UniProtKB/TrEMBL annotation:
Official protein name in the record: non-reducing end alpha-L-arabinofuranosidase
Gene Ontology MF terms in the entry: alpha-L-arabinofuranosidase activity
Organism whose genome encodes this protein: Paenibacillus endophyticus
Record field: catalytic activity: Hydrolysis of terminal non-reducing alpha-L-arabinofuranoside residues in alpha-L-arabinosides
Record family assignment: Belongs to the glycosyl hydrolase 51 family.
Pathway as given in its UniProt record: Glycan metabolism
Enzyme class: hydrolase
SUPFAM superfamilies from the UniProt entry: (Trans)glycosidases (SSF51445), Glycosyl hydrolase domain (SSF51011)
Gene Ontology biological process terms in this record: L-arabinose metabolic process; polysaccharide catabolic process
Enzyme Commission (EC) number: 3.2.1.55
Quaternary assembly: Homohexamer; trimer of dimers.
InterPro entries according to UniProt: Alpha-L-AF_C, ASD1_cat, GH, Glyco_hydro_b
Amino acid sequence: MANRITINTDLTSGTINRNIYGHFSEHLGRCIYEGIWVGEDSPIPNTNGIRNDVVAALKQLNIPVLRWPGGCFADEYHWKDGIGPRESRKRMINTHWGGVVENNHFGTHEFLMLCEMLECEPYISGNVGSGTVQEMSEWVEYMTFEGVSPMADLRRENGREEPWNVKYFGVGNENWGCGGNMRPEYYADLYRRYQTYVRNYGENKIHKIACGPNVDDYRWMEVVMREAHGMMDSISLHYYTIPGANWSEKGAATGFSEDEWYSTLKKALWMDELITRHSTIMDKYDPSKRIGLIVDEWGTWFDVEPGTNPGFLYQQNTIRDALVAGVTLHIFHDHCDRVQMANIAQVINVLQSVILTEGEKMLLTPTYHVFDMYKVHQGADLLTTAIESQDYAHNNEKIPQVSVSASKNAEGRIHISLCNLDNDAAADVEIDLRGLAGLGVAVSGTELTASIKDAHNTFDQPEAVKPTAYHAFTVNGSTISAKLSPMSVTVLELISE
Ligand code: AHR
């Protein structure tokens, strides 16, 4: 039986904020060092120390915003250790992540240079857990003040005359956990205090982001919103998809069972309920939805690859991850009235990465390809869509087999993304396009799929999973009939005729 989809091509229900396609980079494992920063003397081709291959691959994704320096690392990071001549920068222990020595060679100047290369907005996470108000305030002054001041002068001494534009600033990270183990009442008071000194200098207007809840901690959301909603522009939410029952049995990134395939996708879909319920609490204090919900850490979290440093969180990335990315991005689209940004964790070599590296080698993961295929939705108008999906049943449970999202861009092009969550059965879909201006549509498509459920790219076979042209559809007037391959992500492009 067909999955029936109705798309109102003339009815939009909001704009998909392009920041939903944001990324996250932390001083963790091989994300920054090797993944991004190799240093000017490296044999790996680089520009001012930053890998050229990685910059080119990320530019292709039109990445809108990049979060840094953590994560848990942020609340132990003291920014002044990461400025000035690199040889004399302080070395510290990265206590959270593997106990390795952090030489601070990648600091504020290097990060903001990376953002300039990527043409994306920087999103800086400030240190509330172990940093002072003065330290946070001076960081903002250092980066954004144009005139004469101690921090602006110091920036000039370090070679940067003009201030940078820094729009997004997080006041703490996971302050309910690694960022200080605080109660929401205490954090809310600290937030009010710290954010006071996060100043706007000149033209630079900072979007202040409060630390929001872990997963379904609705009390945290309630208290922080109640106490501080008038002093924030956004509040964060963190939710990771783990297939296993708990953090000590997360499950492997490859070689997993059918049960784990199913539970991963089922748990990814939980994001919808989390956003709905947090947003309902936010509505109480912010009915006009001025405040954004920023899902600044999301993605799959599996057991680390055997033989790798457990503190480095390095995991492979399969077609299962591609489906997690596809359905999660659809959920963010559906909540575009509230979700203003999201940052998948993490961009390179850590958790659900879009890029993996091994020395000078680099590969693009299945998740990368979803971000590439879906970039057409960035900044587009979300079209109202209804679906009657068949079930994907497993044991005595079921989830919808098909997930869909559709948008129309400024040129009037319509893009429909479709995920078939079932790794065994194809899905017949019938798409009824209502409200088309012309007589019909010209349709083209791209598909990402695989023949085994843990298909992934390796440094020997970097293109085992990659998008291909998709032709398994027919168009009859305003109806598209398509057959989605098992475990697939498909994007259709429609041009009105
Ligand atoms: O992304 C890895 C870690 O997960 C981050 O450092 C932290 O914020 C979260 O717990």
